[in-house]
Write a structure and sequence with these properties.
Helices cover about 45% and strands about 20% of the residues. It is built from 13 helices and 11 strands.
Length: about 325
């Protein structure tokens, strides 16, 4: 009869631990290596219809094809993009929640808001710039004709003769659309009442209805209405003219305002702590998508310049944008408490 081998209790515990590790760790590694194995959401911090939403919906199908899982757009509007950005900042860094950030959420708002619920530099892992976009000064065409306004100089003259009577629509406090208007006000000396909306889409609805007087909208969301004739474009806010609207002057040219520039940008970010390999894969596939001829032509036709830079380059860009906009916010006098 064979005598059973007796193991000390400590050794039995050690062996059991190794057995469990042998079962669990390979499974965990497989799960991590299988990302994504469920849908990924792209949070858009503005209402549907604006440029942030447009770019997310152009990109989402391309990422869906690249990764084999649905990339779903989730609109979380409010507070100049802060609500949606905060949702992502406080989400797990597991690659399943992303943000379509903007120059507002990650450039302007740090200086504009006295209390920001997230840190645009510490709470995110930048992935890549999606697109750079000029803003465009537009009026409802019928409204402009009624007021006899045919140019930037006409608008300034009319607004100065009626201080506070004109309404300036924006996609929300702290957005580039808002700040471009504030910069215009400070440089020209006109006073207009700022009316913030929960995104460019709702603001544009009122612009098209003639309920708002002027808007410094992102070019892609304004372009269809400029082409249809519903809106008249007086100037772009970039330092140079847009290839999509070559006959439209810059604000600097049209208003004789040297150095005037207030452009927008949009980029993909993940919560801080997202694994570097996931960030890298997202950057690579986004860059590939933006470089596809059909996608590239679609964006350029709308006035957007495709991006695709590295996470490191995008991080440096965000740092530089925060530094750039701080004095602009201060000079404009804009502040949200």
């Amino acid at each position: 009869m064979t005598t059973p081998t007796t193991f000390p209790r400590r050794r039995l515990v050690a062996l059991a631990t190794l057995a469990v590790a042998g079962m669990v760790l390979p499974g965990m590694a497989a799960a991590q290596g299988a990302w994504p194995n469920k849908p990924v959401r792209i949070v858009v911090p503005f209402a549907p219809g604006g440029t942030t939403d447009i770019l997310a919906r152009v990109l989402a199908p391309e990422l869906t094809k690249a990764f084999g899982q649905p990339f779903v757009v989730d609109n979380r509007a409010g507070a100049g993009g802060n609500i949606g950005a905060d949702v992502v900042a406080k989400s797990p860094g597991d690659g399943y929640t992303l943000l379509m950030g903007t120059v507002g959420t990650h450039g302007i708002n740090k200086s504009l808001y006295s209390k920001l619920p997230y840190d645009p530099q510490k709470d995110f892992a930048p992935i890549t710039l999606v697109a750079g976009v000029p803003n465009v000064m537009v009026m409802n065409t019928k409204r402009a004709q009624e007021l006899g306004v045919n140019s930037v100089t006409d608008f300034v003259k009319y607004a100065k003769s009626r201080p506070g009577q004109l309404n300036m629509a924006s996609s929300g406090n702290g957005t580039s659309i808002h700040l471009a208007g504030e910069l215009f006000k400070s440089r020209t000396g006109v006073f207009m009442t700022h009316i913030p909306y929960r995104g460019s889409g709702p603001a544009m609805t009122d612009m098209l209805a003639g309920a708002m007087d002027v808007m410094f909208d992102n070019l892609p969301s304004a372009m269809p209405h400029i082409k249809s004739g519903a809106l008249t474009a007086f100037a772009v806010t970039s330092g140079v003219r847009s290839a999509a609207l070559p006959d439209v002057p810059t604000v600097a040219e049209a208003g004789k305002l040297d150095g005037f520039e207030a452009s927008s940008w949009f980029g993909l970010l993940a919560p801080a702590g997202t694994p570097a390999d996931i960030v890298s894969r997202l950057q690579q596939e986004t860059a590939k998508a933006l470089n596809q001829p059909a996608v590239k032509e679609r964006l350029l036709a709308q006035g957007a310049i495709p991006g695709g830079n590295t996470p490191q380059e995008f991080t440096r860009m965000i740092d530089a944008e925060i530094a750039k906009w701080a004095p602009v916010v201060k000079a404009s006098g804009a502040r949200v408490d």
